[in-house]
Specification:
heterodimer, A: Uridine Diphospho-n-acetylenolpyruvylglucosamine Reductase, domain 3, Enolase-like, domain 1, four-stranded antiparallel β-sheet, B: alpha+beta, Ubiquitin-like (UB roll), DNA polymerase, domain 1, 2 domains, elongated, binds flavin-adenine dinucleotide, binds FE2/S2 (inorganic) cluster, flavoprotein (chain A), FAD (chain A), oxidoreductase activity (chain A), FAD-bd_PCMH_sub1 (chain A)
Chain lengths: 277, 166
């Protein structure tokens, strides 16, 4: 089908984008890479949107070294994250995640900010951000604020972003010496959204485990994390299966997703064992 | 407000090496702009939601979905389609290999396949069959069963690597 659009404006800079968004009001929609939004427009899942195109805001694109963390501009494209030497060195999970997202042509235009703001419960980057303890910088006409990943994802496609706010950057703490970070998922075909997936980190003996496609939003599996910290792998898998309530849909049943969660945890843990303690 | 958010957008871009200026409806996809407004009917519109790859064209050096980009967003961009890539000869060896190995039947998927395959072969000197499969997983072919396409891309990658080594 063809998109039905209420109007379009190309923002010159962030201030201009925020002003456009405020004038557009309720119908205003930020357009970044368009890899989810244009698909939704084409399918008429949404119509009449007034598009504020931020894709040319160069200041929001690219990765900077901010000392203890990396500052990743919201408009940095998936492919650029996979190729970036700072990301590969200090947040390797993000680079690995890119290989699991969609297909090359979609990774060439989709942006990390778009993936975070879209908040698809099956998407990789939101779960990575949660596992890595990332924070999001957002900007509105009343000024900037910072939202931790743990407070950002509210429900399926729902976030803490207020109307008129634009996500400008993702702040990711750098991996510690000998920190291990892995992402594992199962999808039916290469490039499909995951049926189930998880992100696991281990920093100085402490684990963080974030799940995707296993609930309405990315979530930390706190009981499984505690069991992993205690070195109890069997306990961790059991705790994980007990603490999730995955959905059943045409792709997979809840029981199958719960089974996959246990399998993926074992795979991820085995990879981490391979690294330094 | 309609002044700030027009329904018709002026764009200036380069298509297959030639400067193009046009006024496009705000919701026009790049693929429809290329096909219907410029008459470049090589790349196709299939699913129109990013899944089939028939609309794949090159924008600013990278493959993109023509159905997931608005023509308005192509302002200032450099766009290449299968027509332009054929004319410059850049993909001549891929095209020959596709014909030689029966890697196309109806040809609906082929322009998108060629753009995707060229991006892979130009960036990875000796892709494995696995890598070729992974890269082309975003391009559906309802006719060939894929094996011949993988063969063609692999043969070209090997020939180019051999040529470069000599
Ligand atoms: C066939 C297909 C398969 C895919 N598979 C996967 C997959 O396996 N995993 C995955 O994670 N993704 C997948 N995607 C989605 C892809 O990763 C998108 O790029 C991503 O979800 C959205 O990024 P975008 O820049 O394209 O955002 P857009 O499509 O431009 O925007 C998406 C939403 O976020 C809002 N938004 C965008 N940027 C901002 C911002 N800076 N501030 C505030 N709001 C903003 C928009 O208003 C819109 O509501 C797939 C897409 C397709 C078409
Ligand atoms: S028409 Fe664009 S991917 Fe199918
Ligand atoms: S040759 Fe017919 S779809 Fe590929």
């Amino acid at each position: 089908m063809k998109a039905s659009v209420g109007g379009y404006a190309r923002a010159r800079d962030l201030r201009h984008a925020l002003e456009l968004l405020s004038v557009a009001g309720e119908a205003g929609r930020v357009l970044a890479g368009g890899q989810s939004l244009v698909a939704a427009l084409n399918m008429r899942l949404t119509a009449g949107d007034i598009l504020v195109d931020i894709s040319a805001l160069g200041a929001c694109r690219g990765v900077d070294d901010a000392g203890d963390s990396l500052r990743i501009g919201a408009l940095t494209r998936h492919v650029e994250i996979a190729e970036d030497p700072l990301v590969r060195a200090h947040a390797p999970m993000l680079a690995e995640a890119v290989g699991l997202i969609a297909h090359a042509a979609i990774r060439n235009r989709g942006t990390i900010g778009g993936a975070i703001a879209h908040a698809d419960p099956a998407a990789e980057f939101p779960a990575c951000a949660l596992a890595l303890g990332a924070e999001f910088e957002v900007e509105s006409l009343s000024g900037p604020r910072t939202i931790p990943a743990a407070a950002f994802f509210r429900d399926t496609f729902e976030t803490a972003l207020a109307p008129g706010e634009i996500l400008t950057a993702v702040i990711v703490p750098k991996a510690a010496e000998a920190e291990a970070q892995v992402i594992e998922e199962v999808a039916r075909r290469c490039g499909d959204y995951a049926l189930a997936g998880l992100c696991l980190t281990r920093r100085a003996g402490r684990h963080r485990l974030a799940l995707f496609s296993l609930g309405p939003r990315p979530m930390l599996a706190e009981r499984a994390m505690a069991a992993l910290d205690a070195g109890d792998m069997a306990g961790a898998a059991a705790a994980l299966k007990a603490e999730i309530d995955p959905p059943s849909d045409t792709q997979a049943s809840a029981a199958y997703r719960r089974h996959l969660a246990g399998v993926l945890l074992r795979r991820a843990a085995a990879r981490i064992e391979g690294g330094a303690a | 407000m309609t002044d700030m958010f027009p329904q018709q957008i002026d764009v200036a871009l380069s298509v297959n090496g030639e400067a193009v200026e046009a006024r496009v409806p705000a919701g026009r996809h790049l693929i429809d702009f290329l096909r219907l407004d410029l008459g470049l009917t090589g790349a196709h519109a299939g699913c129109e939601h990013g899944v089939c790859g028939a609309c794949t064209v090159r924008v600013d050096g990278r493959s993109v979905r023509g159905c997931l980009m608005l023509a308005a967003q192509a302002h200032g961009a450099e766009v290449w389609t299968v027509e332009g890539l054929s004319e410059t000869g850049e993909i001549a060896d891929l095209q020959e290999a596709f014909v030689a190995r029966n890697a196309l039947q109806c040809g609906f998927c082929t322009p998108g396949m060629l753009v995707a395959a060229q991006e892979l072969v130009a960036s990875a000197p000796a892709p494995t069959r696995e890598q070729i499969r992974e890269r082309l997983s975003g391009n559906y072919c309802r006719c060939t069963g894929y094996e011949a396409i993988i063969d063609a891309v692999e043969a070209v990658a090997q020939a180019r690597a051999g040529g470069a080594a000599r």
